[in-house]
Write a structure and sequence with these properties.
Elements (H helix, E strand, L loop, with lengths): L1 E3 L8 H15 L4 E3 L2 H9 L7 E3 L6 H7 L4 H11 L5 E6 L8 H12 L5 E6 L5 H10 L5 E4 L7 H6 L3 E4 L8 H8 L4 E4 L4 H5 L6 E4 L4 H12 L2 H14 L5 H24 L10
Parallel strand pairs: 1-2, 2-3, 4-5, 4-7, 5-6, 7-8, 8-9
Helix pairs in contact: 3-8, 5-10
GO molecular function, one term: hexosyltransferase activity
Protein name: Glycosyl transferase family 1 domain-containing protein
InterPro entries: Glyco_trans_1, Glycosyltransferase_grp1
Length: about 280
């Protein structure tokens, strides 16, 4: 059985070199488990037998994030105070500060937004080799109220989602993007790019967020502005995120793996009795 969250968008010389071997492995596998629609498309491109492809969606502990993120107004104010956030609204990014994550485009879009809306901050939670470059960008372009947070304990993560009004993942490419699951579990509207694997499965355009072109500051700015200036839209989208993420539970992911295992087991049993394998488990 082969599991993968890879998509057709992943670049790299090593991937190109290894492609013949990967294609051979996939075509001779007993079953393939995809992390979502984009991963399933990748298996299809590699020549996998359609009936042997199962889906086990990428997930997080939804209940934990929902429970821990439910702070009181006093607790939210205290968290904002500790971070130095003085504005009413906040946009959140969580992830590495590396070129592939496209944080530069988020900063540029936020900078444009601040020219029209001065009651919003940007919280960037993460670290990486681009941190100094991004901080210098804020200084050179006079982008105000950007809070860089280096490290947070995992049990503290939901608190950061709780003080945000919008979550943005502007990656140039990501196989999935579990932070989108986390943000939706905390009832946040989400914006991401079309080259993020989770965008197809998690984001319903105009319902719980928007999907924009990667490396496109203008599109990103437009999507952020729509949500930030409209409180009723933010609330509605946040509720939809909370509803939509329920399907991405740990139990459903386990069921996806079990379906693949049961299919292989039944096929092996059938092959010992007949030259024809039994039909695959439903999924």
């Amino acid at each position: 059985i082969i599991w993968s969250e890879s998509t057709t968008y992943e670049p790299g010389l090593l991937r190109w070199i290894s492609l013949p071997l990967v294609r051979l492995m996939v075509r001779h596998s007993d079953a393939c488990i995809a992390s979502g629609k984009r991963a399933k498309e990748y298996f299809n491109c590699l020549g996998a037998d359609e009936k042997k492809i199962f889906t086990a969606l990428c997930t997080v502990d939804i209940d934990h994030f929902r429970r821990v993120s439910q702070l009181t107004s006093k607790e939210k104010c205290e968290t904002k105070r500790r971070l130095g956030i003085r504005t009413e609204k906040a946009i959140l990014y969580v992830g590495q500060l590396i070129e592939r994550k496209g944080v530069k485009y988020l900063l540029e879009a936020y900078g444009e937004l601040r020219k029209e809306c001065d009651d919003v901050s940007l919280v960037i939670l993460g670290y990486g080799y681009q941190k100094e470059e991004l901080q210098e960008l804020c200084q050179s372009q006079n982008i105000p109220d950007v809070c860089f947070v280096n490290h947070v304990e995992i049990n503290e993560m939901p608190k950061f989602y709780s003080i945000a009004d919008l979550f943005v993942l502007p990656s140039r490419q990501d196989t999935w993007g579990l932070v989108l699951n986390e943000a939706m579990a905390c009832s946040l509207p989400v914006i991401t790019t079309r080259k993020v694997g989770a965008s197809v499965d998690l984001v319903k355009e105009g319902v719980n967020g928007y999907v924009v072109a990667e490396e496109n500051t203008g599109e990103l700015y437009g999507a952020i502005k729509k949500i930030i200036i409209d409180s009723s839209l933010r609330e509605k989208m946040g509720q939809e995120s909370s509803r939509l993420i329920q399907r991405f539970s740990i139990d459903n992911t386990v069921n996806g793996f079990m379906s693949a295992i049961e299919y292989v087991m039944s096929s092996e049993e059938g092959s010992s009795e007949s030259c024809y394998p039994k039909d695959g488990a439903s999924r």
